[in-house]
Amino acid sequence: MSQKKFKLESLISKSARKKESHPLSLDELKSVAKRHKTFESFRLHSRSAYQSAKEQGILEEVCNHLVLPKNLSRVEVAQIATNYSTRTAFNLGDRRAYESARLGGYLDAVCLHMENGNKKKKIDKRVGKWCLLSASREASKYSSRTDFRKGSSGAYDWARRKGFLEDVCEHMSIPTTQSNHAHTSLGSLTNL
User: Region 30-36: what's the mean pLDDT?
Assistant: First the structure.
């Protein structure tokens, strides 16, 4: 028998064996999932069990004890990114935060402090003066947007231009008072 024909028959028999195998039962899948604390750990380290549960439509039942990932805010992602010196390390170290930044369109903003991929030079410090984390830290010193704009116009303008103003100012209270001028104008119109 030729070598090619033997390999082909071997591959065919392997695929036939796979089709004959039965999917894991609910109890078997639950016992595999119980070895994990988080949903992400189960998905990454027990891929066949995860896929089997997903295909059978019982993934929620199998994973009901696992901790599900929460949505990360831009500021949380920026804080996580400071733990890494390259984008590759960030991607490998915390895939969820990396993907949140990439899909949210702010990956460049949270990676300004990181080295370039070629490791020959760092990103220009002038370009990276403000990043999401540093602007957020600066904004935390102020209780209102007006104070923030007056006290740190560079950080305020950077956050506004990049579309992060809402994120860095989320801790600030929104003024509820309206101008007296508007009330006076309306009052004088009704007296006519």
Answer: 88
Query: Residue 155's Cα: distance from chain center in Å?
Result: 23
Percent of the chain's residues with pLDDT above 70: 70
- Count of alpha carbons within 13 angstroms of residue 2, beta-carbon side: 3
pLDDT at position 126 over 60:
no
Closest Cα to residue 100, out of 86, 115, 80?
80
Residue 176: inside a domain: no
Task: Look up the domain containing 154 and give its range.
Answer: 74-168
Instruction: Tell whether 119 is covered by a domain.
Output: yes
Residues 89 and 151 in one domain: yes
Place of tokens 């639950």: 30
User: Coil, strand, or helix at residue 100?
Assistant: helix
> 87 and 108: one domain?
yes
In this structure, are 153 and 98 located in the same domain?
A: yes
Whether 88 maps to a domain, the answer reads: yes
The helix/strand/coil state of 142 is: coil
Distance CA 40, CA 47 (A): 10
Residues near 144 by Cβ (< 8 Å), separated by ≥ 6?
A: 172, 173, 175
pTM: 0.39
